Amino acid sequence: xxxxxxxxxxxxxxxxxxxxxxxxxxxxxxxxxxxxxxxxxxxxxxxxxxxxxxxxxxxxxxxxxxxxxxxxxxxxxxxxxxxxxxxxxxxxxxxxxxxxxxxxxxxxxxxxxxxxxxxxxxxxxxxxxxxxxxxxxxxxxxxxxxxxxxxxxxxxxxxxxxxxxxxxxxxxxxxxxxxxxxxxxxxxx
Length: 189
Description:
Blueprint: H1 3-30, E1 33-35, E2 39-40, E3 52-55, E4 59-60, E5 65-68, E6 78-80, E7 85-86, E8 91-94, E9 98-100, E10 105-106, E11 111-113, E12 115-117, E13 130-132, E14 135-137, E15 142-143, E16 148-149, E17 154-155, E18 160-161, E19 166-167, E20 175-178, E21 183-187
Parallel strand pairs: 1-3, 2-4, 3-6, 4-7, 5-8, 6-9, 7-10, 8-11, 9-14, 10-15, 11-16, 14-17, 15-18, 16-19, 18-20
Antiparallel strand pairs: 12-13, 20-21
């Protein structure tokens, strides 16, 4: 690496750091509960800011979206534990409760939700009430790229979910699960 490349990278890191600090300040003033510094690239939190809680030393990469819908509840609807990393273009969509434990790694392009619409054939999809069940991701969990995690699912501590999987049922602690729908293929040793 030559001196010009080095200076360019140093300048980019400085600008990225300043932008992240600005986002911390901006979202705090809107009501997001940030417990310490959170590395934030170009994240999108469109509404219901006070329904989101993020612990220290987390990183939310470019294109991460955190959406909370419906009325505010006495508890936060999205909770992200300390030291967790959420990769690019992941969408977290809560109406009741999504909890992500500490030290988790979530790959790019994931979708995590705690709800879906009813299926009454006499009503259009958006005319139906939401059906919600809390979704929980334990500690030290690794979620591969483009994983979908549906409502009411609990993923146990230290589990691994393979890329492209759709998680429709609970995954036990220490399990490795893959597929559509995700099935446990082995235990971590």
